[in-house]
Design goal:
The protein has 159 residues and is α+β, with helices and mostly antiparallel strands. Helices cover 38% and strands 16% of the residues. Strands 1-8 form a two-stranded antiparallel ribbon. The chain has a two-stranded antiparallel sheet with strand order 2-3. The two termini are 25 Å apart.
Length: 159
């Protein structure tokens, strides 16, 4: 049994039996395929993931009113910093400059990804071969194309 599943069971009945994994309404959840993970372990992950959708009250992301509106396209944001970042799409402003080449970016995160090209850092490693990637999305795409990596769709019933 994986360490993660063992941890999750600490927050649920001692054994993930059929009654714990029984769910009332059907829903789909996609989980990364992991060799050796039993069906009951996938169901445990799926139930815990899904139960978060039944939390009382609005989601954290929707609690703040979107009062900061873009003058150009009327898109609204919860924080002034989000509006400022968005406005760069319209103005073309690129305040984040690479110190090693001539490139500039409209978001700090884009500069951080770019800097990995200069440093050679490849923090995202393929689980099946020796390849490394600067971005997680590129690693996942490689795993899907080169190694037939798939997500496993679990259909469960919610109680």
């Amino acid at each position: 049994m994986s360490l993660a599943v063992s941890h999750l069971q600490g927050h649920s009945p001692a054994t993930p039996d059929a009654s714990f994994l029984q769910l009332e309404h059907p829903y789909f959840i996609q989980l990364p395929y992991a060799a050796g993970l039993a069906d009951s372990e996938y169901l445990l992950y799926a139930k815990i993931e899904h139960m978060q959708t039944h939390q009382a009250g609005p989601s954290l992301s929707s609690q703040k009113p979107r009062v900061f509106k873009c003058d150009t396209c009327e898109k609204a944001f919860a924080k002034p910093s989000q509006l400022e970042r968005h406005s760069r799409i319209h103005t073309g402003e690129r305040p984040f400059h690479c110190t090693l080449c001539e490139k500039a970016f409209n978001q700090k995160s884009a500069l951080q990804v770019h800097m990995k090209k200069h440093t050679g850092e490849r923090p995202y490693k393929c689980a099946y071969c020796v390849m490394g990637f600067t971005q997680k999305s590129n690693m996942k795409l490689h795993m899907k194309r080169a190694h037939s990596y798939a997500v496993r769709t679990v259909i469960v019933q919610c109680t």
